[in-house]
Design brief:
It is built from twelve helices and 21 strands. By secondary structure, the protein is α+β, with helices and mostly antiparallel strands.
Length: 539
């Protein structure tokens, strides 16, 4: 007796001489002393007419009397099968009992057939129970293997997400991650960079489970390695894309936003590989940080557009995944980008931006809604009082960041002039201050930052009761400061004086005080005008 497989192909075991042992239980004939090796089963295809015949048969079937165009029937006849007893349980054919010729070489009697029919009626339910038990055991094994794979994927994700966020004086960094299932495709990272800057990453792998977790871990490792060697965010994404493309699984890719923050100036340079647009909340509203680029892993040789934004004190930025905007309410309306932008705009400075978004999302989807996709958020907020430290109890009139490009000193001069407009400085003093600011900014861009676009110049204008200070900071490497010599034209032409010195000498003559300091991450030149006492009021 052989059970049929529940698949596209059903099998019937060929009878051997051992099957004739059934004759012993019927007629009392002696059984064979030993049986030859079991033969391969006969296979019945899903479209074989024999299958339908057995399904409808109500008693033992005489194989020799059947005339069907059936490959399986021909094999059964060739194998010597004489009688087949279908095993049917609850209308379903689950097996067939095959018998060869009797040892006595007599035909099967009506009593034999009746006994076989009774045996089939009792064996079929038992056989079905056995099949169900095996199916449940197989399902349990599959489920256990699947759960083990999910556990591996969970561990991969947990190990590659940041264990803790960095402490950044003057900044608040927060993150939120909630997968829709046991394992999600989202990821985020915060990367400390060698020059004191910080890299921020939010990404989404277009798949779930172990494959997505593996791609996520590979992407995160490549991003970290490339960020340590390359400066520009676009170059980092381009390098990671080229490295992912050869081994990316079919129909998978990664969307990713990578930004680099200069903590002192608030300059955020970023590039986007097909990810959702971040939002910046400022005192004037909400801005979108847009940059063009293809998702990672689709095509090699892609270029990624770079953009920049300066976060002023009090500004905050939200990096997020599409799990927020693609959530639905009970009527299947989508949360959407406009609603998210409005949520960011209405958030107060006292509340967490992440909490605000989650509250709005929960109210929109309803209490019983199942999470449809992974949700990831990273927020970065600059403290409202950032940049005031060291202002000698003064207030900040202006703070700006300029890229190190020739000609940008004009913007510094104009911004400082607007910042001090209400102080009533005499015109000659204002013009001298503007000259000093322009010269100091050019020096910072050229000699400090070497005209590198990733090194901005930070300018702060501070005011107290009797003091106006303009601080110009570059991001040059640490070096020992030298006091400038008084310019001597003949000495310079003869090579006895360095070419530099004229600018610093001019600056010192334009203001009341000039103080230069150097630290590991840059240099600051402070220009001071005294507003009372011994200030210069003449031309």
């Amino acid at each position: 007796m052989t059970a049929l497989t529940r698949s596209f192909r059903r099998k019937l075991k060929r009878p051997d001489r051992a099957t004739a042992a059934a004759d012993a239980s019927i007629e009392g004939a002696p059984a064979a002393a030993s049986a030859p090796p079991e033969q391969a089963p006969v296979e019945i295809g899903p479209n074989d007419p024999l299958l339908a015949y057995f399904q409808s048969a109500s008693e033992a079937v005489d194989i020799d009397a059947l005339e069907l165009d059936s490959p399986a029937l021909r094999e059964l006849k060739a194998a010597g099968v004489r009688l087949a007893v279908p095993l049917v349980s609850q209308g379903e054919l689950i097996g067939v009992l095959n018998l060869g010729p009797r040892l006595s070489e007599q035909d099967y009697s009506s009593d034999d057939r009746k006994l076989l029919d009774n045996l089939a009626a009792q064996a079929a339910p038992a056989l079905r129970v056995g099949q169900l038990v095996r199916e449940q055991e197989a399902e349990a094994v599959t489920r256990q293997r699947f759960e083990s794979e999910l556990e591996v994927a969970r561990l991969i994700q947990q190990n590659f997400l940041p264990k803790e966020l960095p402490e950044m004086p003057g900044w608040q960094v927060a993150a939120y991650y909630r997968p829709a299932r046991e394992v999600g495709g989202d990821f985020y990272d915060v990367i400390p960079l060698p020059d004191g800057r910080v890299g921020f990453v939010v990404g989404d792998v277009t798949d779930k489970g172990v494959p997505a977790a593996l791609v996520m871990s590979a992407t995160r490792s490549l991003l970290r390695a490339s960020a340590q060697r390359l400066i520009e965010p676009g170059e980092v994404l381009g390098r990671v894309n080229d490295q992912l493309c050869p081994d990316m699984p079919k129909a998978m890719f990664v969307t990713c936003l990578y930004g680099v923050l200069d903590r002192d100036s608030g300059l955020l340079r970023f590039a986007n590989a097909g990810h959702d647009v971040p939002y910046v909340k400022t005192a004037h509203g909400v801005d979108e940080l847009r940059a063009r680029g293809m998702p990672l892993g689709l095509m090699p040789g892609m270029e990624y557009e770079e953009k920049e934004a300066t976060l002023a004190p009090g500004d905050s930025v939200l990096l997020h995944s599409d799990g927020i905007v693609e959530s639905h309410d009970p009527e299947r309306d989508m949360f959407g980008f406009p609603r998210l932008k409005d949520t960011v705009a209405r958030a107060s400075g006292e509340e967490s931006l992440i909490d605000r978004v989650l509250t709005e999302l929960a109210a929109f989807t309803g209490p019983d809604a199942a999470q449809e996709d992974d949700i990831t958020m990273v927020t970065l907020q600059r403290s409202a009082g950032a940049g005031v430290a060291g202002a000698q109890n003064g207030r900040v009139l202006a703070e700006l960041s300029l890229s190190s490009e020739p000609g940008n000193e004009r913007g510094a001069i104009d911004e400082v002039e607007r910042a001090v407009a209400d102080l009533g400085l005499p015109r000659p003093r204002l013009e001298r201050l503007k000259t000093a600011v322009g010269e100091a900014t050019m020096n910072a861009m050229e000699h400090g930052n070497e005209y590198r676009l990733d090194r901005p110049v930070l300018i702060r204008v501070l005011h107290s009761r009797n003091r106006l200070s303009v601080r110009v900071t570059d991001r040059g490497e640490a070096r020992e400061l030298e006091r400038p010599e008084s310019p001597d034209l003949e000495a310079k032409l003869d090579g006895r004086q360095k070419p530099r010195g004229w600018g610093l000498f001019l600056i010192e003559k334009m203001v009341d005080e000039a103080h230069e300091t150097s630290e590991e991450d840059g240099h600051t030149l402070e220009l001071v005008l005294r507003l009372e006492g011994d200030g210069h009021d003449g031309p």
